[in-house]
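ESCALATION

Customer reports they have been waiting on this structure for their group meeting. Please prioritize. Original submission:
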Amino acid sequence: MNESTAAVDSAATAVDSIVTAVDSVAVAVDTTGHASPDTVKKPYGNKPQGVPIKKPSDTSQNPTTPSEDDFKNLTRGNIAHNIPRQMEVDEWYDAKVSVSKGVDTMIVMSVMPKKGTILSTVLVGKSVSIKLIDPTGENFTIRDLNTEKQQVDDLTGTTWEYKIKPLQPGEKQQLKLIAKTTIGDSERDFTIYDTTIDVETTLTKSVWKFTSSNWAFITFAITVILIPTITMLRKRRRKNKPDY
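Update from on-call: job pushed to the front of the queue and completed.
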């Protein structure tokens, strides 16, 4: 009886060991398979602990979109431009644009020519970009003498200067002046001034240019065609003149 009882006890012990092992495997599987996506299981002592993970910040909103506060931070300022309205072909002309913050027009006008300057009000951010362009790309050569985008302060007028040369004559040829300001931390530009300037380019220089380039042909025409023709007409007139 003692031997039989011992055998039964041994068998029971073995079964208990198997059940314990199975339970351990089940716990391990449950621990791994049911982990929340927001946590990872990190061992701490004899029990697994859930350690929270920070979710990435939501970047679905466009960071370049300015807020209402950005618009409120714009300052009322002034823009002045002085661009010749009449030019000769193949001659260089000066053009100037100035922007300032504040309502005092003297700040911006102090750096501009007194004659022919046009003044307007604008909303200004921390920096301004100025572009002077030929919409056709064929009528003018334009040289920028300054950086397109510049900081604008409260005490002085920020200036942009250009050299302009008309390439061909014509009435109401257009130059386009565009001013953009930077709003807030978005560094996004918004147009604050957009105007078209009509320019009349005269024919005088073009006539001289044609004459200089074709002097040989013109001399030939005068010598071979025009002078003989005038001489012939004079002879006919004398011949037909009645004698008294």
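Sent to customer with the following note: The longest strand covers residues 188-202.
Escalation resolved.
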